C-alpha cells in the first residue's frame, strides 16, 4: 500500500510564534526597475516629474536621476516580508505609525528587507488574535537604510495555541 506524502503548505508565523526583539531577514531582495517606477506611478495617478521625467530629474532631482516612487519602495519592503511572516496568518493591517526614507532609491537599486518585532499583545476585543508592532527596515545593495516603516497588524493565533487556551478554560 502506497503511503500518502506529507504535505507542507507555506505560511507566515502566527501571533504566538513571533518573538519580540527578533529580527527576521527576508530573501531574496528585489531589484527596482524603471518599468516598476513608471507603472506604479502612473497606476496610482502620481505623475510627479521626479518619478517620470528624466530630463527634469537631471536638473532637479537628488542625484540627477529619477527617484523610485517612495510608496512603491515601502510597498515592496512590506511585500518582502509576506512569505516569511504574514502569509495566511495576518487578519488585518491596522496602520503605520512611522514611515521614513533616509536615502533615495533609484532604478537598478536592490531592496533588501528585515523586520524586528517591536511589541506584541493579545487583542482585547478579538479572542484568538493578537496585535504585533513591527519595524520594517529596507536597505539597498550597499547596506544603506533607504526606508523604515513601523506598522501594527492583527495576527491569528496558531491552532495549537487556540487548543491550549480552550483546554485551559475547560479546567
TrEMBL record:
InterPro entries reported in the protein's UniProt record: HotDog_dom_sf, MaoC-like_dom, MCH/BMMD
Q: Which residues form the MaoC-like domain?
A: 23-137
Record's SUPFAM superfamilies? Answer: Thioesterase/thiol ester dehydrase-isomerase
Annotated transmembrane regions = none
- Domain of life according to the entry: Bacteria
Q: Which Gene3D superfamilies match?
A: Hotdog Thioesterase
Q: One Pfam annotation, family name?
A: MaoC_dehydratas
Q: Give the family this protein belongs to, as stated in its UniProt record.
A: Belongs to the enoyl-CoA hydratase/isomerase family.
- Name assigned to this protein: Acyl dehydratase
Record the organism: Propioniferax innocua
Its lineage opens with: Bacteria, Bacillati, Actinomycetota, Actinomycetes, Propionibacteriales
